[in-house]
Every structure is written in structure tokens, then in C-alpha cells.
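Board notes, transcribed. Complex of a protein with pyridoxal-5'-phosphate.
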Amino acid sequence: LAAETGAAHCIAVSNATLGLQLAVRALGIEGEAIVPSFTFPATVHALAWEGVAPVFCDVDQASHTLDVAAVERAIGPQTRAIVGVHAWGQPCDVEALEELARRRGLKLLLDAAHAWGCSHRGRMIGNFGDAEVFSFHATKFVCAGEGGAIATNDDDLAARLRRLRNFGLQGTEVVELGVNAKMSELAAALALTSLESQAEFVDRNRENFAAYERALAGAPGLRMRTARSADRRNFQYVVVEVDPAAAQADRDQIVAALHRQNVLAKRYFWPGCPRLPPYQQAYAARRQPLATTERLCQRLLQLPTGLAVTPAEAARIGDYLHGLLRRRRAA
Ligand SMILES: *Cc1c(COP(=O)(O)O)cnc(C)c1O
């Protein structure tokens, strides 16, 4: 993993949630941390489980990642860290976040669960912030069943992370409070088969992506998120935003119609972290509105891709969706 990312250290762990928790501990983050309100709940769970109060910050409409101006406004006297998320493998504005973190004396932790194999301005994800955490869950680009890794270029942090994931052991001696967050051999073997096939995965994902793009071009009320970039992308997520007025159907109606055709479209991230029972407090502690998160949680859907979907099938799904919206429009 270190060779692939170019990071000095990649510490394999049992899953990304525990990876984030270990990173929070090893970085000594306490008090409050700013986190995007638009993310998978595990990003926020990891903070809350470590006793760090999450403060929700809205995301940028174009990138779906942290709105850096909003992050700066959200910094309060207890803020110790910023946690960014590379949503859909789209790197967040890492330069601006690194600059802000440095200027305000904050740690910067990055949730790279979606971003294995992606780069930013020629540098692989895994080299930004204080540490970045990948997920190798079965639904992610690299599949270990359950698994993850923490990438960092900080030698001391890496040594501490290695102790923390292994009961606090240094050699045969326990030197601090650790936990068991090691990746199992079985999971590692599975992940290696995935890594061997990554070029094939990216090719298929890219072909499916292009097939969806062609089929959905001009579909009323639908906008597919572009994955085009000079940088490396894994094309793992096909994300479509529904404008209910223009589509004359809302996202949930469209997902239900796709399900009736046995197409496993998904609402991501629904209902959105701010609406989850554990996060009422964080919602109250937000320092500004979360309008973009609210809109994205209402409007986004994800279409199936990966090796189980052929480009011809992606085209059929796209054509069906396009036709459905045209018929609604005509009715
Ligand atoms: C999947 C995911 C996680 C959690 O990863 P696990 O390995 O399942 O713990 C964290 N953050 C994001 C953004 C995710 O999509």
C-alpha cells in the first residue's frame, strides 16, 4: 500500500472506522473537530466514539467536499482538528485545508474511504494532511471484506498507530492503552487479489461511467457528477443529482422506479448525518446553515457499476432513466 501511494507508512487496520478512531487518538485530538455534514456516518461516529465533539460544516455544491470558507467560520475556541472527506474519490481542497490547519494550529485528518487509487495534482491520496484513512470494505474500490489502512508521512505517528492497533504493544511489552484493530490475514489476502485487479476495475468503471454519461446526456432534470480530471480517479461512484422541478419527479420516485426494474440505485447519503439520532447535539452546535448538505441528501442517487455491470447494461439503465423522464415530461 505504501508503494502504491508513495506514503512513507500505510498501516493496515480492521476497518476505516477504527482507522479514523486510532488516528484521532494518535494525533491527540480532543475537544471539537470540524467535520462535513455530508458524509457517511462513520466519519462522525469515529470522532464521537473518541469523545471528540463533531461540529458540522457544510460542503461545496460543486465538489461535495468541505467548503473551506465555511470551515474557517466554524472554527471555535475548542476546535482542535478538521476532518475532510474525499467524497466519491474527489479530493477535498487539500491545499486550502492544509494552509488553514497550519495557520490555526489544527490537526488535519482526511477520510479517504472512497479515494483509493486517486491523485491530486499528481500526488497520490495518502500524502495529505496529518493522516489519511482508506476503507477496504466490500462496497469500496479495494475489497478486503472488512479492512482499511492509515497512510501518513509522519514516522512517530506511524509508530504510535502501529502500537495502538495492537493492544499498545511495543515488542512484547504494553506501553500504552491500545485496542485490537489489526487487519486479519484472511482480509489481507482478499485485498491483495483486489489490488492485483485494480487496473481492470478502473477500466470497467470508466467504461460504465462513459456509457451512463452518453445515455443520460440531455435527460431533463438529471445531472451526472463528472469524474473527468487530469488526475487519477477510480470511477467507483456514479452519482446523479435530480432537480425535481426540471425532472418532474423527485429522487425517491426515480429510485423507486429503478428498483421496480431491479436496478439497485441507492440514495447516498440518506437521511444525512445531521438528521441521525446521535447527532442532534452536533447539529445544534453547527455554526452555520447546512443548506447544501440538505439539498444533496434530498437529490442524489447512485447508479450501479463495477465488474458486475457491463457497459451495455449501464447504457440500458441510462436509456431507461432518460426515457422515463422524457415520458413524465410529455405527460
Ligand atoms: C465506508 C466509509 C467509511 C467506513 O469504512 P469502514 O471500513 O466500513 O469502517 C468511512 N467513511 C466513509 C466516507 C465511507 O464511505
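The longest helix spans residues 311-330. Residues 226 and 239 are 9 Å apart (CA to CA).
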